[in-house]
UniProtKB/TrEMBL annotation:
Site for Positions MEP for the nucleophilic attack, residues: R161, K217
Annotated residues for binding of 4-CDP-2-C-methyl-D-erythritol 2-phosphate: D244, V245, H246, H270, S271, D292, I293, G294, T368, T369, E370, E371, F375
GO MF, one annotated term: 2-C-methyl-D-erythritol 4-phosphate cytidylyltransferase activity
Residue ranges of the region described as 2-C-methyl-D-erythritol 2,4-cyclodiphosphate synthase: 238-393
Catalytic reaction equation(s): 4-CDP-2-C-methyl-D-erythritol 2-phosphate = 2-C-methyl-D-erythritol 2,4-cyclic diphosphate + CMP; 2-C-methyl-D-erythritol 4-phosphate + CTP + H(+) = 4-CDP-2-C-methyl-D-erythritol + diphosphate
Gene behind this protein: ispD
Species the sequence originates in: Halodesulfovibrio aestuarii
Protein's UniProt name: Bifunctional enzyme IspD/IspF
Keywords tagged on the record: Isoprene biosynthesis, Lyase, Metal-binding, Multifunctional enzyme, Nucleotidyltransferase, Transferase
UniProt entry tagged with the keyword tRNA-binding: no
PROSITE patterns: ISPD, ISPF
Keyword hit for Nucleotidyltransferase: yes
Site for Transition state stabilizer, residues: R15, K25, H270, T369
Binding of a divalent metal cation, residues: D244, H246, H278
Length: 393
């Protein structure tokens, strides 16, 4: 799977213009950035996401692109992105976004920037369904109100709400199928409200997964209260501390922070023996109050024999993000008499920034010896400690 997301932020927001002094809702500020940025950040926390296409109003495209460049300084998103101009209708904007996708892209998530509070968990649920073979999948929630069909202010009949669902975005699709459906839509002049409708009319089946009650769409002035309420909730600062040790001996080639250390001693380990990433995993688990790395990835399991510690870190970090935590900074220390690690520190730091999608000033990597004292001083092994700060909520 090679999945990109199209973030639709090309609407005019006419229903909200009076309440926002003419500012289009996708450009309303939330936590110091335009509202559309929240969707981009959530997608960036999904490890299977490969890139983003932003669709903006044509008249705002230059300013919005400059804003994106500033927000993504230091590659904060950790993803490639493109910008295209929207069209007159939502379906036209999606079509323009489809044209910007790279040829290697196989699957797409289409999302309305007016739904900024979906979670990475929902994104992963959609990707799971696509990986299992669904050509189209959308999130849906049960309808709780009684729905009636009305003509000329008179009720015609009442619908059975047990069969009704309210649909949300992101919506997931196989790329080739969605492009074919959009081409047919344009040829036959359909008018639709979402991409699932296009796919249905083109004769394809659409699967559903459980949506999220918090994944609300900002449409009317009263919906602005959702932004304001989230602005006033204060995140809670939390800390985590991790520690790990490996002894030297015939085993795995040395890796630190995902970087192979050429000429370093081999380490005895069940996984690939990356002591630094193991300490970092423990620090993340400590923030969550979720045990330690040995509980989650026991060395008694053949499943984790020689597994990349980067895979373990991805799994722990996904859980960390899905539970609503946000890293603010990491301080790492490697303790070893040998090898000399000064030349490797910049590469290790850069790689950890990449893996966790953090800026350069959020990660620090140190290396020290113990003045030839203890087992590290006697060149019998290596150890690492990790201290992290994060915000919860």
């Amino acid at each position: 799977m090679h999945c990109w997301s199209i973030i639709l932020a090309a609407g005019s927001g006419t229903r909200l213009s009076a309440a926002t002094n003419g500012i289009k809702k996708q450009f309303l500020e939330w936590q110091g950035a335009p509202l559309f940025w929240q969707s981009a950040i959530t997608f960036s926390h999904t490890t299977r996401m490969r890139g983003l296409v932003f669709v903006f109003p044509e008249e705002d495209i230059d300013e919005a692109t400059e804003t994106l460049k500033k927000l993504d300084f230091g590659r904060r998103l950790g993803l490639p992105w493109k910008v295209v101009a929207g069209g007159a209708r939502r379906q036209d904007s999606v079509y323009n976004g489809l044209q910007a996708l790279p040829t290697e892209c196989t699957h797409i998530l289409v999302h309305d920037a007016a739904r900024p509070f979906f979670s990475a968990t929902l994104t992963n649920t959609l990707l799971d369904a696509l990986e299992k073979g669904s050509q189209a999948v959308i999130p849906a929630i049960p309808v709780t109100d009684t729905i009636k069909v009305v003509e000329n202010n008179s009720i015609c009949h009442t619908l059975d709400r047990s069969t009704l669902r309210a649909c949300q975005t992101p919506q997931g699709f196989h790329k080739k199928m969605l492009i074919e459906a959009h081409n047919k839509c344009n040829e036959e002049g359909w008018e639709v409200t979402d991409d699932a409708s296009i796919v249905e009319q083109a004769g394809y089946s659409v699967a559903t997964v459980a949506g999220e009650m918090t994944n609300c769409k900002i449409t009317n002035p009263e919906d602005l209260a959702m932004i304001e309420s989230k602005q006033t909730s204060m995140p809670v600062p939390v800390t985590g501390w991790g520690y790990d040790v490996h002894r030297y001996g015939e085993g795995r080639p040395m890796k630190l922070g995902g970087i192979p250390i050429q000429g370093g001693p081999q380490v005895v380990a069940h996984s690939d023996g990356d002591v630094l990433l193991h300490a970092l995993c423990d620090a993340l688990l400590g923030c969550m109050g979720d045990g330690d790395i040995g509980e989650h990835f026991p060395d008694s399991s053949a499943q984790f024999d020689n597994i990349s510690s980067g895979v373990l870190l991805n799994e722990v970090y996904d859980k960390f993000l899905q539970r609503g935590y946000r890293l603010t900074n990491i301080d790492l220390t490697i303790i070893a008499q040998v090898p000399r690690l000064v030349p490797w520190k910049p590469q290790i730091k850069k790689n950890i920034c990449r893996m966790l999608k953090l800026n350069d000033d959020q990660v620090n990597v140190k290396a020290t010896t113990e003045e030839k004292l203890g087992f590290t001083g006697e060149k019998k092994g290596i150890k690492a400690v990790a201290a992290i700060m994060a915000l919860r909520g």
